[in-house]
Specification:
mainly alpha, Four Helix Bundle (Hemerythrin (Met), subunit A), two-stranded antiparallel ribbon, 62% helix, globular
């Protein structure tokens, strides 16, 4: 179902789309990035912050790194400064690409067990399902961020996978 090549492709797509989205967001002033717009996480800044939170949480499960310093409800405010959020995103994207470069099929064919704070219990699921969720979660919330950027007059360029990656 999920292969190492899929992981590498989606990690590269994630990195490129985040590069484009943060470049577009940087054309807006801080008030525009923080304006409540009715998105799941309030504002563009809150949505971008939640994406960093979610990716950090999943990567902590996938590579054993440190989880985010806050719980889900605080995710939209996890990093207040946009420049810090951007450099955190860049480092996280490099981490995701490194993980994807090293993932092997046996790991994707196995299960992952972790304690879910959201579920309040230990959870065990197929790694391939979790990897699909990871990349789907990114795309879902980037779609929200794209709508907020577009409404604010910023442009990200093409977002279709087949047009973004060679």
């Amino acid at each position: 179902m999920i292969t190492p090549a899929y992981c590498r492709t989606m990690a590269a797509y994630n990195t490129e789309m985040n590069r484009r989205f943060y470049a577009a967001a940087a054309t807006l002033d801080d008030a525009a990035r923080r304006r409540p717009c009715g998105a799941f996480f309030g504002s563009l800044h809150g949505t971008l912050c939640h994406l960093v939170w979610g990716d950090t949480m999943w990567m902590s499960r996938f590579d054993g790194g440190t989880p985010p310093p806050v719980k889900l409800p605080e995710s939209p405010r996890m990093i207040e400064d946009f420049a810090t959020l951007r450099t955190t995103r860049e480092a996280l994207d490099a981490r995701i690409e490194s993980w994807a470069a090293g993932i092997e099929q046996p790991a994707l064919d196995g299960d992952l067990t972790w304690f879910s704070g959201a579920a309040g219990r230990e959870v065990r699921r197929p790694m391939s399902l979790l990897v699909m969720h990871f990349f789907n979660h990114q795309t879902h919330h980037r779609g929200q961020a794209h709508a907020l950027l577009t409404a604010a007059g910023a442009s990200t360029g093409d977002t279709d996978l087949f047009l973004v990656l060679p």
